[in-house]
Design brief:
By secondary structure, the protein is of the alpha/beta class. Helices cover 29% and strands 27% of the residues. Strands 3-4-5-2-6-7-1-8 form an eight-stranded mixed beta sheet. Bound molecules: adenosine-5'-triphosphate and magnesium ion.
Length: 168
């Protein structure tokens, strides 16, 4: 079984959500898959906006709810931002996202950030999962889990970079 590690981060406002994304963006390697879970309005797009800035993307990042996939190629490595909200599970399978964007497919390998990962039947073995929940205080709580050695190392770097986390 591959290595995993989990952390909880309290995000008191949208700046904190953005900042968590920013830190992930600074350390992400090409081939990183970020699976984002969480209810409507839990902060998934806000996090990807920070991720983009951390990758060196200055083009504004907007929600791909209607476009399905937005591609940003100007940063350190490409960012592919996907929103599966409007799709059925069978349609998601047919997309073969991991093969296309991370696994030597036609696209230049980059970071694949997927909102509404709940819609995926088969999830990649090696990924970072990020579950966002509304907190009673009005902020959000994030549960981050790294699956696989490379992702565990990546999250260690992110969490040792001034982020206040609780190890689970
Ligand atoms: N930690 C936080 N505390 C309070 N508000 C936040 C926090 N993070 C993000 N928000 C706010 O929540 C709202 C919804 O954020 P966002 O659009 O990123 O959610 P989402 O999960 O992508 O939604 P959807 O499910 O519609 O795609 C925005 O107004 C954003 O500024
Ligand atoms: Mg969104």
């Amino acid at each position: 079984m591959s290595k995993t590690s989990s952390f909880i981060v309290d995000l008191s406002d949208s700046y904190a959500t953005h900042n968590l994304g920013y830190k992930l963006g600074q350390y992400c390697l090409s081939g990183t898959i970020l699976l984002l879970f969480g209810n409507l309005g839990s902060g998934k797009t806000t996090l990807v906006q920070g991720l983009g800035v951390g990758l060196g993307i200055f083009e504004p990042i907007s929600s791909p709810t209607f476009t399905l996939i937005n591609e940003y190629l100007e940063g350190r490595i490409p960012l592919y931002h996907v929103d599966l909200y409007r799709l059925e599970v069978d349609q998601v399978d047919a997309l073969e996202l991991e093969e296309f964007y991370c696994d030597g497919g036609e696209a230049l390998p980059g970071v694949l950030a997927i909102e509404w990962a709940e819609r995926m039947r088969e999830r990649p073995q090696s990924a970072i999962t990020l579950k966002l929940e509304h907190a009673s205080t009005g902020g959000r709580r994030a549960m981050l889990t790294a699956h696989g050695d490379v992702q565990v190392t990546l999250l260690e770097k992110v969490t040792s970079d001034g982020l206040l986390v609780d190890e689970v």
